[in-house]
Design brief:
Blueprint lengths: L3 E2 L23 E8 L3 E9 L10 H5 L2 E3 L2 E5 L5 E4 L1 H14 L7 H15 L10 E10 L11 E11 L10 E5 L17 H16 L4 E5 L7 E4 L3 E6 L2 E5 L9 H12 L4 E4 L3 H9 L3 E8 L3 E10 L2 E4 L7 H14 L10 E3 L3
Parallel strand pairs: 1-3, 9-10, 9-16, 13-14
Antiparallel strand pairs: 2-3, 2-8, 4-7, 5-6, 5-7, 6-18, 7-8, 10-11, 12-13, 12-15, 15-16, 16-17
The protein binds pyridoxal-5'-phosphate and 2-OXO-4-methylpentanoic acid.
Length: 355
């Protein structure tokens, strides 16, 4: 598809790596294309980064038909920029689109516009250790009517943001609060889709946790409120008595690409790994018996994030003396080594971007 380019006449100044944080700065351009039932995807364009004009009845504003993705471009030591498993994000985006009755984007088209846009904007990929260019594709229903139904119009946008670490703690362990009241998702709902509504519904518990000094919430299942699900912006893994345990994908949690990569890395290296239901009682018992050896979260923004403390119903549990564990550190090094190109990518996960 032809992509029309309008250059930004006022290019911005690239921020210093030390101020980056997460999602605060944006690059000079964004990618956009529109969908209509009659024309399919059309009008692909790279335009100066800036506000969107929306009809006040726009479906996304009223009924939340919005989905998004998150992936990163990494600058290698040789200066080349590469993506990590982008096809996985595109496939997940299309699964989210199907769940929310938004149009899917054919995989080849999505890969084409993504790689062309990143190639165009790649100068914004920072090179300081631990930094990357966060890529946020998103799509929203854009009918100009208040009827509730599958949309006939949608808009797909990609924005990019140079980032450092997601948590202020960086690679140091974070404190997580287990939420006992609100729930995030149930099977059959939208928990396994990456849609904005899931995050809006999680803010109340997130605020409560933050006020109490915790970085994020660990959700329990929405039916029995008993089984561990995932953290606000990452999947979760535990090392219990020598075995790595992570909640199985049963429909209510996000199938994380970092989660999948960790499992593939660990299995290839012969670790004992199990994807299954894990109850809060089993976790508490393991903690009390000293068998919970490590806990960490994994996600694109969060990378591998050690969990040093869990709080449940007012009771605080310290994990691994609040220090990063051996498997956590190993996963962090293996994964980021492949992403930044300092270790060989024997899995074929990385995709170099054209200069
Ligand atoms: N779970 C939630 C709720 C998330 O927002 C994310 C972040 O994308 C993840 C898990 C991790 O997914 P991924 O590894 O694909 O980034
Ligand atoms: C990501 O890791 O890409 C995410 O989408 C997390 C986000 C909610 C901050």
């Amino acid at each position: 598809m032809e992509i029309k380019i309008t250059r930004n006449p006022n290019p911005g100044v690239k921020p210093e790596p030390s101020v980056l944080g997460f999602g605060k700065y944006f690059t000079d351009h964004m990618f956009m294309m529109d969908y209509s039932a009659e024309e399919g995807w059309h009008d692909a364009r790279i335009v100066p980064f800036g506000p969107l004009m929306l009809h006040p009845a726009c479906t996304a504003l009223h009924y939340g038909s919005e989905i998004f993705e998150g992936l990163k471009a990494y600058r290698r030591a040789d200066g080349k920029v590469q993506l990590f498993r982008p096809i996985e994000n595109i496939r997940r985006m299309n699964r989210s689109a199907e769940r929310l009755c938004l149009p899917t984007v054919p995989e080849e088209l999505a890969m084409e516009v993504l790689t062309k846009f990143i190639s165009f904007e790649q100068d914004w990929t920072p090179s300081a250790p631990g930094t990357s260019l966060y890529i946020r594709p998103f799509m929203f229903g854009n009918d100009e009517t208040l009827g509730v139904h599958a949309v006939k119009h949608a808009t797909f946008v990609i924005i990019t943001s140079p980032v450092g670490s997601y948590y202020k703690e960086g690679i140091n362990p974070v404190k997580i609060m287990i939420e006992a009241d609100d729930v995030r998702a149930v099977r059959g709902g939208t928990g396994e889709a990456k849609c904005g509504g899931n995050y809006a519904a999680s803010n109340r518990a997130g605020e409560k946790a933050e006020k109490a000094g915790y970085s994020q919430v660990l959700w329990l299942d929405g039916v029995e409120r008993k089984y561990i699900e995932e953290v606000g912006a990452m999947n979760v893994m535990f090392k219990i008595d020598g075995e790595v345990v992570t909640p199985a994908l049963l429909g209510s949690i996000l199938p994380g690409i970092t989660r999948k990569s960790c499992l593939e890395l660990l299995r290839a290296e012969g670790y004992r790994v199990s994807e299954r239901r894990l109850s809060i009682d089993e976790l508490a018992k393991a903690l009390e018996e000293g068998k919970l050896e490590e806990a960490w979260g994994c996600g694109t923004a969060a990378v591998i994030s050690p969990i040093g403390e869990l709080c449940y119903m007012g009771k605080k549990y310290t994990i691994n003396n609040g220090e990063i564990g051996e498997v956590t550190a190993h996963l962090y090094n293996s994964l980021t080594g492949i992403q930044w190109g300092t270790l060989p990518d024997t899995y074929g996960w990385t995709l170099p971007i054209e200069d």
